[in-house]
Amino acid sequence: MTTEDLFSKANAQYAKNLPFVLYRKPEADLLNGLFQEDDFLHKVETFEETGFVFSPFDKDKTGILIPGIPEVTTDYIEEKASLRSTIIKTESAAEAAHIQLVEKALAAIQNSVLQKVVLSREQSQEIENVNPITIFKRLLFNYKTAFVYIWHHPQVGTWLGATPETLLSLRGRKFETMALAGTQKFTGSVAVTWGDKEIYEQQLVTDEIITNLQSFDLRSLHVGDRETHQAGTLLHLRTLISGTFNTEGQNLKSLLKALHPTPAVCGLPRDLAKDFIMQEENYDRAFYTGFLGELNILRDTSKKRSRRNVENLAYKTLKNETKLFVNLRCMQYTDSKALIYIGGGITVASNPKLEWQETVNKAQTIASAL
Ligand SMILES: C=C(O[C@@H]1C=C(C(=O)O)C=C[C@H]1O)C(=O)O
């Protein structure tokens, strides 16, 4: 199937108002798609299902599944679709409300054991009559290092995003995850310096992920160096974390329970931060800061094999693969407007005005595709 065929199929599916997802993994050349023939709302219950999961922030709510094996294109994505000059429209009332929210969090951090809380908001942006698949193409061609997707279900809505954050990659006994936090604008170079605030904020995430992983039966754990990662017009601090479990067939449900939500999108201690978010944010995050991606796809991803091995099935390394991403830099699409979701981590060193500006910068990466 060519990329063009897959886009046509998605357009037809959207016109019929049936569930589908199109996505491209970070740095990948090929596009994937899953299509459902009816509008049934499948839930993910055991995490042993196969398909594409779309799960909300609130871990007590169930995720939605588009079941099946993805169709993959065979050609390289070449079409160009430029970003636009849409400027995010900010309102002084929204600014005042966000600054007040950050100040409240700063008081809570000073007066309790709360160390970090990620606070977010929803920004509405009017859009002209543009097909969401066109918006998806703009994200796709401009955010190569991101996981880029469009997801549609008639009973839920249409979501799009270009996220820089992996929640969990799992293949057999091998896993990969990352600690991503701290933000500054990209101004042409990744050789930048970071302040103590960002280094502290990101280290909290790394430490917490490691602690949570250590409750599992690990054979090895590798923590990379802290590095600067470019995500569109923004830079983040990132530490790659990988390893192997002692046994195959890890209980994905309990792994995800241990990892999600990470302090990159919730805070520390987790329950206290979540309570603060639920009580104070004053809107429903829905799928923003939830997770999404491939669940238990049986694949042969072994690298180059000799001719003899190709012919010998015994050499095939078919393994279940799961690749989940955190739903950041995303929006909900309706015919007249886009609801853009953005947030940032608040610690003792946060400046409320700068935190507001950070959400505006993050919103701009998505608004440029409208
Ligand atoms: C919460 C978001 O991003 C998260 C918060 C960051 C920060 O506070 O610097 C950086 C990356 C993400 O971990 C978002 O993009 O909405």
TrEMBL record:
<dbReference type="InterPro" id="IPR015890">
    <property type="entry name" value="Chorismate_C"/>
</dbReference>
<protein>
    <submittedName>
        <fullName>Isochorismate synthase</fullName>
    </submittedName>
</protein>
<dbReference type="Pfam" id="PF00425">
    <property type="entry name" value="Chorismate_bind"/>
</dbReference>
<feature type="domain" description="Chorismate-utilising enzyme C-terminal">
    <location>
        <begin position="96"/>
        <end position="297"/>
    </location>
</feature>
<feature type="domain" description="Chorismate-utilising enzyme C-terminal">
    <location>
        <begin position="319"/>
        <end position="362"/>
    </location>
</feature>
<dbReference type="InterPro" id="IPR005801">
    <property type="entry name" value="ADC_synthase"/>
</dbReference>
